[in-house]
Specification:
Layout: H1 3-8, H2 15-23, E1 26-29, E2 37-40, H3 42-46, H4 48-62, E3 69-73, H5 76-88, E4 91-97, E5 105-112, E6 115-122, E7 131-139, H6 143-154, E8 158-167, H7 173-177, E9 182-187
Parallel strand pairs: 3-4, 3-7, 7-8, 8-9
Antiparallel strand pairs: 1-2, 4-6, 5-6
Length: 188
């Protein structure tokens, strides 16, 4: 398929795209626990034009922000963060679960509804003064994003903004971040 044919399949821009995107997010009740509705983005990832449009929307929003580095949170933050970094001409650095990175790391603990967990980054992932964009698929309580932000700042990065495909507004994660610019495509 040619690039022109792919462009013709691009989802409608505007409110129509938000409705289209919402239709590609599957609600899974009682996962991972009873009473939780999990917002599953795998149908979105399978639909190449919509997946590309999500990355494009992020790129449009941040193209004039002089981003040096995109930091993606494991694991779905990698899926959107890496192609966004390429589109912005920026580098990419992962925030990983404990024990997944091979070199020297820094760590942050974050709270879960059922306990706590830890995330880590390589000590050399961020250079002091770099302008950083944090990316993940979902903003819920803000615990994982807050841990990522703290590590970026510890390494001397300037956090420009945080971007999410989905924001679960009732969980008030936005308030936990302490970030001036938070961009989310979908709100539930």
């Amino acid at each position: 398929m040619s690039s022109n044919e792919r462009a013709d399949r691009r989802p409608e821009i505007g409110g129509g795209f938000v409705d289209h995107l919402r239709a590609l997010v599957r609600d899974v009740p009682d996962f991972p626990f009873a009473g939780i509705v999990f917002r599953d983005i795998t149908p979105l990832l399978r639909h190449a034009p919509s997946f590309a449009e999500v990355v494009h929307r992020f790129e449009e929003r941040f193209r004039d922000s002089a981003i040096d580095l995109v930091v993606g949170i494991e694991s779905r933050g990698f899926l959107f963060g890496a192609p966004l970094a390429l589109a912005l001409g920026a580098g990419f650095a992962p925030v990983r679960k404990l024990g997944k990175l091979p070199a020297g790391t820094i760590r942050r603990e974050y709270a879960l509804e059922y306990g706590s967990n830890q995330l880590e980054m390589h000590r050399d992932a961020v250079t002091a003064g770099q302008r950083v964009l944090l990316v993940d698929d979902v903003l819920a309580t803000g615990g994982t994003a807050r841990a990522g932000i703290e590590m970026i700042q510890e390494l001397g990065g300037e956090l420009v903004a945080a971007a999410f495909v989905i924001e679960l507004t009732a969980l008030r994660g936005r308030e936990a971040l302490g970030v001036e610019e938070i961009f989310s495509l979908l709100h539930y």
